[in-house]
Amino acid sequence: MNKQTDQNRLELDMPRVGQYDFTAAPFQCDLTGRLSLGNIGNQLLNASDYHSNARGFGLTTLMNENRAWVLSRLAIELTNRPVAYEPFHIDTWAASAMRTFTKRNYRLTSADGHVFGYGTSVWALIDTDTRHPVLLTDLKNGSLEKWIVSDEPCPIAPPSRVAFDGDGELVANVKTGYSDADINGHVNSIKYIEHVLDTMPMTQILSHEVYRIEAAYIAEAHAGDTLQIFKEEKTEGQISFKVTKEMTDRYDFDRYSNEICRIMVFMKKK
Amino acid sequence: MNKQTDQNRLELDMPRVGQYDFTAAPFQCDLTGRLSLGNIGNQLLNASDYHSNARGFGLTTLMNENRAWVLSRLAIELTNRPVAYEPFHIDTWAASAMRTFTKRNYRLTSADGHVFGYGTSVWALIDTDTRHPVLLTDLKNGSLEKWIVSDEPCPIAPPSRVAFDGDGELVANVKTGYSDADINGHVNSIKYIEHVLDTMPMTQILSHEVYRIEAAYIAEAHAGDTLQIFKEEKTEGQISFKVTKEMTDRYDFDRYSNEICRIMVFMKKK
Fold it and tell me: Which is it for the CA torsion B17, B23, B28, B33, positive or negative?
């Protein structure tokens, strides 16, 4: 039996929903003593990759084929977060696949099986040379199809269109660097969420509980780029952020900024 | 048998050196595909707390007694770092205890037992009401003493005095926020290291390998504070950073800045 057949057998034995175990490490907790929002976000990304990697279409496997997953939309909704030392699980599955996009959902549960959050995301498959989208049916002969789970509930609203009425207020200039970079040298998707949360006054952070975060990713920034963060607070407890990148290319007509992502933070008074 | 006796029995069964298992999660890796420097630092802090917590003097236990560990010095030296998905171990032990300070050392090993790094740190025990140092002999009737391991090797130089000849060059103003906070609301010790690494040009990051980091922590900053980062590069491959905090107290004579920590980064050309 050759290695390829082994791998196929291994993949076929896998359940379609993957479950991954994590612990809220004390130095990954925030000032409420619970796993920080950024660390929850990164564990969702890690679970995504553990799931796809074990099934033959992970980050590092695709790298060798000049393919990459690019996160396009993300929504996370939480009723609670694990406290320091608390173990928890992330279940994740591919909920649909259409042309160049796949939807991946998440369920977060405590050790006793209590659900404390859900997530939903949309990923695009791209060619890393051309940066153009690739049809999912071209991915390992369409093998993504067999992993789709369409009947598993994920009862949260999908990411909405993060609307801006005006230009918003410029609240921060962030020079990105080493710690912003993911394995591809791009700014990590969750880092944008951390950067926008970090522009919020600590009095607001301390008096409110963030229960939902939405992100729409438009273009990629590279570690080293300078980002501008614009804010618009239309409704109490619902803040829109727009992240743009300073353009340095002198041939770019709109040279001052270029939109990277939009993030909406939903919070309620404690 | 009451709960207290159970706990004592549990503690006495513990080895003096604790070993903790980690994995280089793909979204905690840097653009070289290996666990990022910041994430290695935080796993050292997590290992410290897992070790002390299991032995009765962890962060959360001490909180109830108005005591806290404050990191004073840290040096990390690495010959390699784990790649994405790679499991690794951190061994840690208390190497000495004198008056109000204890030294904690670390050994980082890959799954096959190969050592790829060491760390050494100095921690002070403080009273969280007065912020004054507390004698270690007052900690649970001096029980720290029985955990000391003085014969375990840690063959790296202790943290040196991070010297500045002048004032250095101001390279960044960093407004800290939510993601900077640790469980106590202070800026996480490793976050300072991430912030200074993030001031370095990406060309320098990409062409060099950081093999040693030293930090001397002088005062605490709170999430929400604005930090200034000053840099002095005396020797090729050895950069000193000074982090200060903007003072807002109008009774403070030296109101413009207050030193928080000094960090030295050692790097070599790839």
Answer: positive
Helix (H, G, I), strand (E, B) or coil at A178: helix
CA-nearest of A264, A213, A215 to A235 is A264
Interface test with A, best of B178, B180, B189, B191 (most A CBs within 10 A): B178
- At residue B257, what is the residue type? S
Q: Please identify every stretch of chain A with a pLDDT value under 70, giving residue numbers as ranges.
A: 1-12, 141-142, 248-257
- The whole-number pLDDT of residue A12 equals 66
For residues B81 and B70, is the Cβ–Cβ distance under 8 A?
A: no
Highest mean pLDDT among A22-36, A235-249, B53-67, B233-247: A22-36
Distance CA A234, CA B99 (A): 55
Residues 6+ apart with CB under 8 A from B6: none
- CA B179, CA B185: separation in Å to the nearest integer? 10
Nearest CA in chain B to A193: B179
Return phi, psi of residue A6, to 5°.
Answer: -55, -50
What residues does B175 pair with on adjacent strands? B226
**Residues of chain A neighbouring B202 (CB-CB closer than 8 A):** 177-178, 222-224
Count of helices and strands (H, E) across chain A: 5, 10
Contact A172 B175 (CB under 8 A): yes
For B221, counting Cβ atoms within 10 Å of its Cβ (0-12 exposed, 13-18 middle, 19+ buried), the class is buried
Distance CA(A222)–CA(A184), nearest Å, equals: 9
Query: What is the complex's ipTM, to 2 decimals?
Result: 0.92
Whether residue B37 and residue A84 make contact (CB cut-off 8 A), yes or no, is no
Cβ atoms of A35 and B186 within 8 Å: the answer is no
CA-CA distance, B95 to B73, in Å (whole number)? 14
* B177/A60 CB distance under 8 A: no
- Rounded Cα–Cα distance for residues B106 and B44 (Å): 7
B185 is written with which tokens? 């609301």
The pLDDT > 90 percentage for chain B reads: 75
